[in-house]
Amino acid sequence: MDNFVFHNPTTIDFGTGKEQQVGQHLADHGIKKVLLTYGSERIKRDGLFDAVTKSLAAQGIAWVEFGGIVSNPVISTVREAIAVARTHQVEAVLAVGGGSVLDSSKAIAAGVLHDGDVWELFTRAATIKAALPIFSVLTLAATGSEMNSGAVVTNEETREKFAIGSPHTFPKVSIVNPALMQTVSRDYLVYSASDIIAHSIEGYFTAKVQPRFQSRLVEAIIKTVIETTETLLADPTNYGARAEFAWASTQALNGLIYSGTAGFSYPNHMIEHALSALFNVPHGAGLSVIMPAWMKWYHGRNPEQFKRFAEEVFGLDTAEQGIAALEQWFDKIGTPTRLSQLGITEADLPATIDNVLGNAKWFGIAEIYTRDVVTTILKNAL
Amino acid sequence: MDNFVFHNPTTIDFGTGKEQQVGQHLADHGIKKVLLTYGSERIKRDGLFDAVTKSLAAQGIAWVEFGGIVSNPVISTVREAIAVARTHQVEAVLAVGGGSVLDSSKAIAAGVLHDGDVWELFTRAATIKAALPIFSVLTLAATGSEMNSGAVVTNEETREKFAIGSPHTFPKVSIVNPALMQTVSRDYLVYSASDIIAHSIEGYFTAKVQPRFQSRLVEAIIKTVIETTETLLADPTNYGARAEFAWASTQALNGLIYSGTAGFSYPNHMIEHALSALFNVPHGAGLSVIMPAWMKWYHGRNPEQFKRFAEEVFGLDTAEQGIAALEQWFDKIGTPTRLSQLGITEADLPATIDNVLGNAKWFGIAEIYTRDVVTTILKNAL
After folding, report:
1. Domains along chain B?
2. Interchain CB distance below 8 Å, B15 and A3
């Protein structure tokens, strides 16, 4: 096991009705004025916006709205929000939404206190030295952003999808009410399942140091995601399954399963970020296409762990059977497993490969993911 | 899944040589003078005391020593330490040791800032409103005290073994260097294994709401403890096994596996605390006696979960087989499974039962654990 430091200061307030506590949480942190960020206007129709603002008003907290954050969020929107935050001199950012809103809000919170352009924090031209306090009310369980410091945003001019992370960008409090997720569409449920599995397996398969205990935690998450996704496809109102799905999602990317592991990388995310950046495909849909394709290329490099995956997750014997079972499960739940299902054809590969190779430098794995290798993986996914 | 709030602010600095960072951690928190608590003088012989104080000195941090904390720590020692802490006006408590030293240090840290007698915090006559910052260097992985807010101390006059817990008593930073644990005796290794398993199963078997995901996390911990204990009995210097054992121990009682569960209780701890309080038996040794005896009485109340335990942990079919397998495993590793191995005979039962019934009120399960029931369980353990 490798040396590590584990510190996750985020408070998770989990359960039914917890969005009504958001004002109290902000008040506990001394916040008087907040930027309330969100995506579509749906939260105004379904009552969540009212519940949140009522909770803020009850504590005498003023808010400034900033809506319209889209999936695969873009840096231009973050820049606009930073300007609004500065104009109104808000003291905190409250994200009401899914991973895109949360990630954007982290970038906003850090960007407000950064002297230069916020994209410098993503290219690593500058580091995050401070951020406004971040709070969130989660409406989609997938990215784990509610309990980590990371944020992924796309620069639509440069077509780069990069990430930030800092001790300053952990949410202070994230509210996770699984009942708010019952209206998530069938598509976004299965894309979310794919995303959570991707977070779980990147380290599991690629780490040079991968203790057995951490592997068991990963398998607990994946088995839970598989089981609860199937329950929710049959019955979207099953609260228990929604709750376990959400909590497993949080655990997949809050630092726990990566603690003590070493030498891991995020090749599936690296490749998928190119698909999102170029073709604006849903992140989880891109990942369910890439994962089986990547596994078919990669598994010979870590045969024991792939055999373990087959045995522990699917009760099967060989690496190849495990990979096939995962791909078949993706097919079964209805998340794509082929680039063609995303509308991406062989003619798109050269541009895609170029974008991946750009990412490879940022991800620090350009030596392994050469043009030939990336081509092989993407051809597996055609 | 039940509503819950999860917040664990402790920083774990894990790995080889990390005790050399302790001064830096205290300096990061602005500490200039600390009460350094420990148990036996062994840490002076084996170099740990020197490493810790050198690290403090390098940061210009003064320390006041308080040694002699024993296993099953007692409130009189805590009172003495509080007097020392007040005399020297220390700003923090640094525990160097195992669970007894950590638990005592939490009581000291809270007691220093409590106007009345510290035992009032244990009897719930008073609540913890503040505590000095707590830091620790862990030398024995078992109690999970390094990443939780709990502390268990015995009042040797009243023969009560009670607990405290408060948001103020989470350690700020705990250093966990598995290499420091290589000299743990064979006995204390197996007692620790028993203790970790007890932390894992109390909720697993007794919770009225026990989500499957949380059960999987528990099984990951137990399987890891079983596997690494066997490795360490064969090779005490196996760092990887020592590290996984330690990290599993931390996860067993840091709030994770209990998040979202509801209606659980700690009957095995309730009964064992009587053994420790009356006969000063090692906590883990008492637990390995009580657990199989309790399971034989209890399993019919939760047959599905006991069947699950048998299947997932031991690959067996029935509740009875799972219980027998755990008892046999305790026998195999050499932790007691009979009261007689602790020197406790049938003649000791009346006094033991009385003490357990006193605990039952404190633990809030007096209605279930009547004299008859406690007698049945203890007779199972004869």
Report:
1. 11-180 (3.40.50.1970), 183-380 (1.20.1090.10)
2. yes
